[in-house]
Amino acid sequence: MSTTPDPAAATADEAETEADTCYVGPIRIRRDQQGKTTDRRLLEWIDPRDAARRSDRTMRDSWRVLRIQSEFVAGFDAMSEVAEAVTVFGSARLHPESPEYSLGVRVGRALGEAGYAVITGGGPGAMEAANQGAHQAGAQSIGLNIELPFEQGLNPWVDLGMNFRYFFVRKTMFVKYAQAFVCLPGGMGTLDELFEALTLVQTKKVVRFPIVLVGSDFWGGLLDWMRDVLAARGMISPEDLDLLTVVDDPDDVVAAIEAATP
Ligand SMILES: C/C(=C\CNc1ncnc2c1ncn2[C@@H]1O[C@H](COP(=O)(O)O)[C@@H](O)[C@H]1O)CO
């Protein structure tokens, strides 16, 4: 049996590889990677029994560190001039006609009028609402967007915006440049952001950091569960509940933040 490579077969292989490949600028992307976000490629499970893919992953991840580093640098640069600021989280799915959306606009406006820049995830729904309020108040309206599997621009009320590829880099910016978090009603993303903030405060990674939940009808059930289940079963301390302030009025959002400001 001949061991000489068959040139025709090699050409066919190359053709197949090229067909499976596209280029974005200088970056070559296999077709099966297209539509995958950077975060997804970072977190993707590789079968540890596949030695070739494991070694490929090692090489890619080493270079990835430089991209992560550059995203931190770009974020720090973009945010370096931000003065007093509050990060507002909330549902990406709020309809502009909904009462929660108009509450979000009023919260953004109240924060802006009180002199705070407003930082959001830069997307639609509650983020857009808070950015709108801040912009209309003449305050700095900041949107820190995230690369998603579908195309999404920054909402039109963002004055200073940035698109992040890595969730954890973006999350660092939300905390680092804000002195408080405000949560409007929201789903998984909002709950993730809320509980990350709570964990940072509980473990004293950040101090004097008020977390304000807007909408007692929306958040009341969660607080009841935290008290009746988490605290009652010793999973959190009863004092941990004091880390959260629930309000309904946008002016009370500002008051809660100011009460915690030294
Ligand atoms: C699902 C839709 C849009 C998604 N676009 C987002 N853009 C920016 N930031 C987002 C987006 N989705 C979630 N986030 C972050 O999580 C929070 C909202 O998540 P929830 O699950 O909707 O509560 C928000 O604070 C963002 O930081 C619809 O078009």
UniProtKB/TrEMBL annotation:
<dbReference type="GO" id="GO:0005829">
    <property type="term" value="C:cytosol"/>
</dbReference>
<protein>
    <recommendedName>
        <fullName>Cytokinin riboside 5'-monophosphate phosphoribohydrolase</fullName>
        <ecNumber>3.2.2.n1</ecNumber>
    </recommendedName>
</protein>
<dbReference type="InterPro" id="IPR005269">
    <property type="entry name" value="LOG"/>
</dbReference>
<dbReference type="GO" id="GO:0102682">
    <property type="term" value="F:cytokinin riboside 5'-monophosphate phosphoribohydrolase activity"/>
</dbReference>
<dbReference type="GO" id="GO:0009691">
    <property type="term" value="P:cytokinin biosynthetic process"/>
</dbReference>
<keyword id="KW-0378">Hydrolase</keyword>
<comment type="similarity">
    <text>Belongs to the LOG family.</text>
</comment>
<dbReference type="Pfam" id="PF03641">
    <property type="entry name" value="Lysine_decarbox"/>
</dbReference>
<dbReference type="InterPro" id="IPR052341">
    <property type="entry name" value="LOG_family_nucleotidases"/>
</dbReference>
<keyword id="KW-0203">Cytokinin biosynthesis</keyword>
<dbReference type="InterPro" id="IPR031100">
    <property type="entry name" value="LOG_fam"/>
</dbReference>
